[in-house]
Amino acid sequence: MPLKKFLPLFLSLVFIVIIALTVNTIKKTGYHLTYSVTNSMPRGLYLIIPIKKIARYDIVEFIPPQKTLAFIKEKLWVPQSGSIIKYAFALPNDHVCIRDQVIYINNKKIGPVYKFYAPNKLLPQTKICGKLKENQYLLLSTKSERSFDGRYFGVISEKEIRGKAIPIFTSH
Known about the structure:
- By secondary structure, the chain is an alpha+beta fold.
- 23% of the residues lie in helices and 37% in strands.
């Protein structure tokens, strides 16, 4: 008789363990959810899936280089996980150049490159001018011309890209 009293609790715990194991298994295969809160990309929930080939304008989740990560975490511009989503604007063999505070991809003007994010507050500057190598990508956002993106941290290697981001529920 006393066991009946604990049956709902026991079944609830079993259910929670099954869900935790399922989530863990799914995550190990490369699938997970992320939430974008910045103004540079549509805010909302994204499903991250493993990516085989990155195409132009795919939305990808990545971890920026360590120096950049420290800078943007200090400014509270990213979640603690450090993951960011941006569009893959330039692909291997594309010509990317920052000159005269403007970024160009294949000689097409993409947008401005700013020196400051606030009065007397310098943004990191990167020097890019040349053809991207195999497995190199330039990740940008044009939703906000002041997006902190590849204009400031440079190219990202394919190994730093965690997956393709599929919008599930976003607002512009």
